[in-house]
Specification:
alpha/beta; Rossmann fold; 7-stranded parallel sheet; Short-chain dehydrogenase/reductase SDR; Sc_DH/Rdtase_CS; oxidoreductase; SDR_fam
Length: about 260
């Protein structure tokens, strides 16, 4: 089978959550380059218009998810590719004692329940068409949690990996591929904010915070965090026809960080 890499997603409708910055923006740009019509959603409109359709919504709330589902179906009629990229951690450093119930609930709403709701909203149409791809962006912290700074985030991502595998077992026979991408440390503005929080809570410098994260991960054999475009390239392949036989699998992109087979 021959593939045209430049237009391999032509006529495909894709949604990228958290697509206005960081890895989400890089994924959006990659799918646009491949010819897809791309919708992004975030709480705030991006400063730069790269050709994606924008929907303002807070996906940490059920009503925000419904806004996105309704608008996509009304304006585009269907969804072919769903990239559940939105996620992150805003919890304070300091381990378990520094965390409130609200910290835990917020992390699970953003990192687990938002993807679950979106999947539930779009899967009926994908199953009816017997076609579609769902990508869950998880994290290597599902296996290597940083208890000092991102404990709820790591727990929520571990739950997302488990859920993604289970969902793939259910819907792959119905024509929908479900995959997980687990990046290691990606150098984004969110990562920079995390370093600032660690530095502030531990009364250390940013460079020392950077070293503490590297040490907490056990080091990165490649020597640096990933660039957003490197994660985007993996996602671009996984949603393409070239990956038609891939489903139910977790793909780790971490520069060799995870020290196990």
């Amino acid at each position: 089978m021959d593939f045209n890499f430049e237009n391999e997603l032509e006529n495909k409708i894709a949604l990228v959550t958290g697509g206005s910055k960081g890895a989400g923006k890089a994924i959006t740009d990659r799918l646009l380059k491949a010819g897809a019509t791309v919708i992004i959603t975030a709480r705030n409109k991006p400063e730069e218009n790269n050709g994606a359709h924008f929907i303002a919504a807070d996906l940490s709330k059920p009503e925000g998810t419904q806004i996105v589902v309704d608008e996509v179906i009304e304006k585009f009629g269907r969804l072919d590719i769903l990239v559940n990229n939105m996620g992150g951690s805003e919890t304070p450093g300091g381990g378990f004692a520094a965390l409130s119930d609200q910290d835990w609930e917020t992390s699970f709403q953003i990192n687990l329940l938002a993807p679950v709701r979106l999947d539930r909203g779009f899967l009926p149409g994908m199953i009816e068409n017997r076609a579609g791809v769902i990508i869950h962006i998880a994290s290597i912290q599902a296996k290597l949690p940083l208890y000092d700074s991102t404990l709820p985030y790591a727990a929520a991502k571990a739950a997302l990996v488990n859920y993604s595998k289970s969902l793939s077992n259910e819907v792959s026979p119905k024509g929908v591929r479900v995959l997980t991408v687990s990046p290691g440390w990606i150098m984004t503005t969110a990562s920079e904010r995390m370093l600032e929080r660690i530095a502030h809570s531990s009364n250390i410098t940013i460079d020392q915070a950077h070293k503490s994260v590297m040490d907490g991960l056990g080091g990165i054999p490649f020597g640096r965090p990933a660039w957003p475009k490197e994660v985007a390239e993996l996602v671009g392949f996984l949603v393409s026809p070239r990956a038609a036989y891939l489903t139910g699998t977790e793909y780790v992109i971490d520069g060799g960080t995870v020290p196990t087979v």
